[in-house]
Amino acid sequence: MASSKTYVARRDPVLRYTFAGFLAVAIAAIGWVMITVGSSPSVKGASFIWLPAALQLVAGIWLGPWLGAVAGGLGAYTAGIFAYGGWGITDIIQNPIAGGFANAMLPALLFRMLRLDPTFGCKDPYDVLNGAVRVVVLALAVMAAGLVNIVLALPSPWGLALPLIVLVVGVPVILGNVGRNLNMDHFVLAVDIAVVACGVSALIGAFAAYVGGKPIEAALIDPGVGWFVGDTVSAVLGLFLLPLYTLRLRQAGIAE
Amino acid sequence: MKTRKRGLSFLSPRVRLVVVFTSGCLYIFINNIPGAILFLLVGIVIYLVGENRNWKLVLAAPITGAMMFFYNVIFSARGHGGWQWLVFTVNQAGFERGLVMGTRIIGAMLISFAWLLSTSLPEMYEGLSWIKPAEPWVLTILRGVQIIKREFVALTQSLIIRGLKWDSPIASIRNLIPLAMAIIPRVIDNTQKGAAASLSHTRTKPEGNGDLILNDVHVRYSPLLPDVLTGINLRVDGGEFIYLAGRSGSGKTTLLRVVGGIISSIMGEFMGSVTASGMNTMNTSLAKLSGSVRYISPDPFASFHGLTVGQEITFLAENEISARRTLEIMGIGDLWEKEITKLSGGQQVRLVLAGILASTAKILLFDSPMQELDPQGRQEFLSALKDFLVQNPCTVIIADPFWSEIKPFVTRVVTLEKGTIAQDVLPGEFFTEEMLSRYSLLREFRPPMSVIPGEIIAKMDNVYVELDGTAILNGISLDLREGELVVVMGPNGSGKTTAMLTLAGAIKPIKGNVKARGGVGYVFQNASLQTISMTVNDELSFSPKIQHWDSGRIEAFVTEGIDWTGLEPLSCPLDLHPSEVEMLAISASTAGIQVLILDEPTIGLDADGIAKVLDLVQALIQKGIAVVIVTHDQQVAKTASRVVIINMGKITYDGPVVNF
């Protein structure tokens, strides 16, 4: 008779599939609300407050690229169908493809490639939220400083001076002591990954609008820009969920 | 009487799906005004002739259409001439494009909404299940919809009751953040239950003769948490009927889970060995084990895998005749078509038990099966179990506080204390006053709580409630006075919980008025559905923070709650024993209230726990707070001054307990 002398846990694979299915439902439910209240006025389904981006990001990182893409993509597709009958080709591009592959699969692949620790070594998950918000504020401040040159019209390379000053001053002032409570290398890379994933997702969204008949230049602005900003804000919330629940999901045998 | 189907309901679920899919895919190819208007008219007709209409939902269509029109007009391309409005160019091309896009999207949305409103989840399953490789995913996801919907509804109700406002779109979006955060632990918890349900609904042939051998079994739920079972050695012969006794938190549920293979296929980890009906649980998949060993969880809703009563029982029974017979035995034979979500708590328990009776398992593991049943339900279950055991002799291990009703069946009693087996005795040695008291199964007599009621502080006036188109309450009128203890009783599915959720403001009546002076606290029947935070501390301070208490008052409230519950401030509610979650929910619900409603508070608590809750109730009513207890427990009912009986959504008795 087989008897174990140490603790063993042999999870059934159905557990992870079920989690993917249930997460897809949660993404669909929240996404339904978000599409209904926050869609771009000219491209239905392109939500500017896409809170499910948080769940799509964590789905990929917890469940792996493929299962994460299934959960993220299926959830987004269902949200579109329920919110506005989005079954068609543009909806498939902007919901399951953007949501599944860019918002869920891409961060999962990059996290694995760079061997990032999803808990960021923090003791309090709120340090991540605090840090992520500060990084985004810093990025916006640098971008705003760059845009000021439209008014000032300083010749190159002086036009770069203002963003550079904001960056040099902003790092100690805005980021403060975030690094004391977090593994900063992993954390900054994770923020970069979230931003890149949301950027790719926004490009796919813009392409969907182009397929739907919108000129590509217009599509890059609307829904492109709003999509990028909205998804990034939500993905930051996803980064906060990672340290909050990753250990619990690993113990449950669900997260990798 | 058969009702004539209208609109998309007239079509079979598969054809319905084809119609909505085709229109959803092809509408973007409609690029002229007459085509778009024709498509819009089709959408309007399909929506209007449908059986169900939801005007709030459909409002999204014209708003979307108008926005599409407006933005396409003002963002017209410059090259097409026209005139300037602010910084925009408005021209004929933009106008036409806006009209086409706005009109056709309204048409597509109306057809989609008509499909959504005419198609239930079981019909969606029917529409999609022909894609065989996707069938398990479809079922899992649709079950997920039912489960997540329950969680969303419970969490939303909990947030409303605890003071979070949902009175504006911005507030609703803001509230989605705590909701989204709280939903993840729910998804984890329900994933475990859902996976267990899915695997235990795989029809496999039973093996062995119901023998059971546990050899030095240790169990823990996480390396960070203490062991729950430590060194269990137990040998059970096939056909024995074992009563498992122990105080709350002694390890009864964990022992049943490890025997049933839930640990470690779904949760936790263990060392030692468990052999159930000849199969080593470590080397046997849960799907295979479930054919011989069935674990019945105390959360009936999460134990289901089917979407309707008929589908659920068909998964478990050998054939439809057997399935229908077991439903008849459990008194729910007329509910075959009913969706699982529309069953009351008691009806759900009856369905779970019907599933057991339909199975051919060799070992049955019952975890508090009778707690949510009314007295008639308990009697029916035990009678059915008796017949079942005659036809299908098997091993039974049961943990349930209704020991006196189980006693005639019991051949052996095993008791647990702090995760180890303390007693392994014959029934005659166990069912004595001394032993029952030792295991907190004997409750002390409590006289009625006597407080002179004051002024009316909450009132329901001729209240009618409908849920999902079904009338649940049919004219409920009820007054509550300061310092009054009222017990609400009635059969399973009579509308007790709905009435109390309406009183608490979580459900809006379609007719009638509900008024309450001050806050109304509510503790759900399943308290784990209402916890929101990740620490005991945060859970206790949640309502006071929403109510903008000052920090000193919040700290005092939290300290008082921690003292009363005896919990660690930083422990996570998800890691607590159900009885501890119940205590936490009760304590957290008392912030700033004038009325406290406790829905089946005795479930999951041993005699000591129940006494502790009743002590708190006594203290609250002395402070002038009105307390309502919804219960099937007649001993609890006797402590009240007034009893209200609800049946078929109406109050059939409202008066003193002595007369009742």
TrEMBL record, chain B:
Q: Which residues form a coiled coil?
A: none
* Start and end residues of each ABC transporter domain: 212-443, 458-660
Q: Does the keyword Nucleotide-binding apply?
A: yes
Supply the alphabetized keyword list.
Answer: ATP-binding, Membrane, Nucleotide-binding, Transmembrane, Transmembrane helix, Transport
Instruction: State the SUPFAM superfamilies in the record.
Output: P-loop containing nucleoside triphosphate hydrolases
Put simply, this protein is called: ABC transporter domain-containing protein
Q: Which GO terms describe its cellular component?
A: ATP-binding cassette (ABC) transporter complex
Where in or outside the cell it occurs: the entry states: Membrane
Q: Where are the transmembrane segments?
A: 20-49, 55-77, 98-117
Taxonomically, which superkingdom?
Bacteria
Pfam families this protein is in?
ABC_tran (PF00005), CbiQ (PF02361)
How does this chain sit within the bilayer? Multi-pass membrane protein
Q: Name one GO molecular function term.
A: ATP hydrolysis activity
* Native source organism of the sequence: Candidatus Shapirobacteria bacterium CG08_land_8_20_14_0_20_39_18
Matching PROSITE patterns, A to Z? Answer: ABC_TRANSPORTER_1 (PS00211), ABC_TRANSPORTER_2 (PS50893)
